[in-house]
């Protein structure tokens, strides 16, 4: 007798002191069956799930039905449990999604036993078989989905599997597995299973009707350590990213390509169609963790977890889209990363193409919103907007349903609406042209008309703000006072007539770059003066199409961050590690010991202070003095070298340091003279300099809104997200005087707080009987969150 039936019987006999409603709730509650789930696959094909028993969530012991033979075809989900080494079956179409019990003879929720340490699963295109990648023994477990039973023989792989996908296109079908040690793309023949004839008990059945396609497996060497694989099955294309390279490989999965002996040598089309360096000249120390194709085919998304960004690649052109330039207004100077800045550390993502019909008539008007959903390490699920496109076109035969548009690519490609998915290159304007944000200029570059469509494009490249949720910019500073200033204030409080303060106060923060000086206060500024998103929109009246710009309050630049302004503070890029070196040739020559002085923002006139004690010996005692004694002025700068000179003032050393008195591994710091420096917790310290060989040159964007992270008293400092003026106070600033304040996003992020701990996979499930859904797999809490795509906040349920 199953656990659920036992509880139901006791309730009927009145042996439990529980209310009837409580008993019924327990009957409906499925026992936990997930154990560190890491991946999910939605199955839609020839095999369908029958109805579940309402008491023990089981299905009949026979083979599963054909979808063609049931009145209400229902697909299902497969969940990989890496600890229990089992494959769970999930009813995704039930009012409350739940695990399916495959064998009522065993207590609890029984599942499919697979290999050791499974990490991924993929179903065959026809939905009759599934492959599970096992890292414990480098094998693939094959599962017959008619009987939910594993085939006796596992497929041995030449390396440790990282990810697995199945594909079918016009020229080939098969299995693509990403392997490490060695770094390989393994492509093998496909698997299909037929439904067994007659009455069988699948619970003890050995699959006999499964067939592997003809052909040998192909192994393609990869240039780096692979981390993720995404397939566009229709186009027969695989995208691969690496943990140690900022590269993306596009590989053709055709019979012709896989037969190329020189595949993946960089010049061997059609196998490796392209290799895209998504970091560009900026470079990166990190690779990527995930890759995905936009459902429309316009973009490829790369998740770089280390820098909390999503990089967007133009798929048609094979080029990185710099989000700083593509967004309008541009965020050049507000960010160094070329991707979309995320909240916290994103762990997994899923592309989404949202569609909304505005006019369904002979001249139709639809909105396509390209973007992603992202799950982060703080238990949040939120949305990222990339591009909004309004499209007007002639549709004399009417529009497709949302379900058909999303899941039936053949119908979509044949419909006039498919022309709306062909997009222009981004950015829409050069950096100089994008400065003009008047309605006329925006309409000229954002509205595209041709014979069969009119597009109105709004680039966003930012987190989506929650509707009607407005936060505040916080510009209140706390002052960290050095001892000297605290003593002066104490003396003032004891009776001196001078009113002493904490020094130079922050002015109120501006809300937009062009706000009048009188409205430098966020609270006083009218909403019309806040940063805005200019949305390009269309109106259809009969067969006439009109375009307009509609502006709405929206700040694409702000993110939560703390800032510290310090008077004559030590430049953080130099630090005090033991790595400075006194040169043996040339008086006053100082070697960086590995520091890039250009990136660190060191400038002529700054002061270098030696922190190490001089060695003992003749002449070295002359370098003993006060804390600031060994401070010198910087007179020349190279990328890795400095020239220093003594400061002709009392209290400073008159002699230049020597190698004899200061061995290698010298500790030192650099401080600007009579200037404040600004350092953000995420932005760091902004330098306008970059390295060109052994010289420091101004960055291209240094004079285009990018102001360095230093400012003199009385001047306005314009940083990535705010501007402020440092004013002289009653007491002059002292070295080390600092203000710490925070800047919060002006608006709340649109998302859900799910309480997940270790999200490992996020997928969008096309309609398999219950509309479009999302599924978030969380190994930390051993749950899968299932929700309708249009109601992820409150309409979801956890499967355990």
UniProtKB/TrEMBL annotation:
PROSITE patterns: PROKAR_LIPOPROTEIN
Organism lineage: Bacteria, Deltaproteobacteria, Bradymonadales, Lujinxingiaceae, Lujinxingia
N-terminal signal peptide: 1-21
UniProt keywords, alphabetically: Signal
Name this polypeptide is given: Alkaline phosphatase
Matching InterPro entries: Quino_amine_DH_bsu, WD40/YVTN_repeat-like_dom_sf
Organism in which the protein naturally occurs: Lujinxingia vulgaris
Superkingdom of origin organism: Bacteria
Keyword Signal: yes
Transmembrane helix among keywords: no
